[in-house]
Design a protein that fits this description.
α1 packs across α4 and α3 packs antiparallel against α4. 10% of the residues lie in helices and 33% in strands. The chain has five helices and 24 strands. The chain is mainly beta. It folds into three domains: 141 residues, Sandwich (Jelly Rolls), CATH 2.60.120; 93 residues, no CATH class; 143 residues, Jelly Rolls. The strands form six sheets. The protein has a six-stranded antiparallel β-sheet, with no helix packed on it. The chain has a five-stranded antiparallel β-sheet with strand order 1-15-24-18-21, with no helix packed on it. Strands 2-13-5-10-14 form a five-stranded mixed β-sheet, with no helix packed on it.
């Protein structure tokens, strides 16, 4: 893999969607308006529905990633004890970034008052409340986060079959059919089977060199190959890395006006999907939506991959029965940049990760802290406003790994030495930032824009 990638990308890091808004026909008092001792009767209509609908329904709906729906009173009341426990322990809602370190768009967390409200409601009869108050079910969508139709769709003519055991890296190639460059405001990866799609990565090729690698024809202009190494492809310099575009639970969003990614004419899209089996054969028909920019272009999105070669206490190896912390330091930034997103990545031995920048004036800029890493909840975190990083700033990272029997997520028991590798039984320690070159006023730009 390239030691330090600093390139204009042609594909997006997919951005996560914000939580659904509270929906009720009657205006309800906020849970945070209550005193800590929570006096009075707690009812579903008055307090519980707004909390659950805002923080849980984005995943727990019929089309969401959650295993069951939490929309109706019946849905919630029969699971009240479980909801009380997972909120009391802060296992739910799912949000791994430390909100006291850096705030992001779409963060989901409950206040201590809201947690107490849920607990008291679960313990005191799960009362419905005033039947004259109509609790309107929140609007839920299909996976797509866009109201307009995509300008291009890249999809398979037939599903890919994932066997009952193992994990698989499948690389798909699509002909774009473009005769001229296209300016893209968003790429939207839509998983066909959320149970098995672990993550997706994009690359592109204009050389035609890799056409012969793809022996399986899946339809007009579509081919795939199983068991590839995307990092080897990138190191060969014949394809360009497009970055991580999907992790479970996240949806795409358009960039602000004037900011796009460029898709070159005659490029081949190479979509790398990591599948994890469920114990039985599964089918996947994932596809990619492409949305063209409707406004004049001022800047293109770029990204930097900070990989394991930047670790200062090499080698990147974790001996068995060991908890070990690694530190990394980036090269100095060659220009002023505005960071849009940040995406950390470790595997199952990861415990925590902290990322921050140090400016030439020795000021510290907090970027991201995750105190309890979970590979299945790795995310692409979008800043509320572009975060300015001055010229010659450095980015530092600290990450801890647990390769002991006490780590319930350890993929190899008894533990063995863990080294770098793409498979989840191996380890990785890297992060990606997505950015534009700084312009005055970027700090005031809103990144939480509505998709059209």
């Amino acid at each position: 893999m390239s030691k330090f990638l600093f390139i204009v990308i042609l594909f997006p890091l997919f951005l996560f969607v914000a939580s659904c808004n509270r929906n009720s026909q009657s205006e309800q008092p906020s849970a945070t308006d209550l005193s800590d001792d929570i006096k009075g009767e707690i009812t579903f209509t008055q307090y519980i529905a707004p909390i659950i609908h805002k923080n849980c329904v984005p995943c727990h709906n019929p089309d969401g990633a959650g295993p069951f729906s939490l929309i109706t009173y019946q849905d919630i009341a029969k699971r009240a004890k479980m909801i009380k426990e997972v909120t009391r322990t802060k296992y739910m809602p799912l949000w791994k970034a430390d909100i006291n370190y850096r705030s992001f768009i779409g963060e989901r967390f409950l206040s201590e008052t809201e947690i107490k409200l849920i607990g008291k409601w679960a313990d005191t009869g799960r009362k419905y409340g005033d039947t004259n108050i109509v609790v309107k079910p929140p609007e839920t969508k299909s996976f797509s986060n866009f109201s307009r139709k995509p300008d291009k769709v890249f999809s398979l003519d037939k599903p890919f079959i994932v066997p009952d055991t193992g994990e698989y890296f499948v690389l798909y190639m699509f002909d774009t059919g473009l005769n001229e460059d296209a300016e893209i405001s968003a790429f939207e990866f839509v998983p066909g089977n959320m149970k098995i799609v672990h993550h997706a990565w994009l690359l592109f090729d204009t050389s035609g060199y890799y056409d012969n690698l793809f022996s399986n024809q899946d339809g007009p202009g579509i081919k795939h190959i199983v068991e590839h190494n995307q990092f080897t492809l990138m190191d060969e310099k014949r394809v360009q890395d497009g970055g991580l575009i999907y992790t479970p639970g996240f949806q795409a969003s358009e960039y602000p006006k004037g900011i796009t990614k460029r898709l070159p004419a005659k490029a081949k899209l190479m979509l790398s999907i990591h599948y994890v089996s469920t114990g039985k054969p599964e089918k996947d028909s994932s596809y990619l939506n492409v949305y063209y920019a409707k406004q004049p272009v001022q800047r293109h999105v770029e990204f930097i991959v900070f990989d394991e070669t930047l670790i200062t206490n090499q080698p990147f190896e974790i001996p068995p029965n060991t908890i070990k912390t690694f530190n990394s330091r980036s090269p100095k930034m060659p220009m002023e940049i505005s960071i849009l997103t940040i995406s950390p990545h470790m595997h199952y031995r990861g415990k925590n990760m902290t990322i921050f920048a140090v400016t030439p004036k020795n000021d510290t800029i907090h970027l991201l802290r995750i105190n309890d890493w979970d590979l299945n909840l790795q995310g692409i975190y979008r800043f509320k406003n572009p975060l300015k990083l001055p010229f010659e700033s450095e980015i530092l990272m600290n990450a801890t790994f647990d390769n002991t029997m006490e780590n319930p997520s350890n993929p190899v028991v008894p533990p063995v030495k863990a080294v770098f590798g793409m498979r989840s039984k191996d380890e990785m320690c890297q992060y990606v930032i997505e950015f534009v070159r700084y312009m005055e006023g970027d700090e005031k730009m809103q990144l939480n824009i509505k998709n059209e």
